Amino acid sequence: MEEAYVRLRCPECDKDWESAPSELPTHDTVYHCPNCHASRRLAVFTRTDHDLQTLKGLQ
Length: 59
Prior knowledge:
globular; 22% helix; 59 residues; DUF7836 domain-containing protein
């Protein structure tokens, strides 16, 4: 079984990373960039609509 992941990018510092949806809060929760600590709703950090739909579907 393949493990799903969500691609994230910080809108402030442009850091890219991946995380499993089970390790992330819900898409409407305020999330903090691990690099620069910018705070936004997690949905803003998803790189594409597909990543957002994956996050919503697997939580």
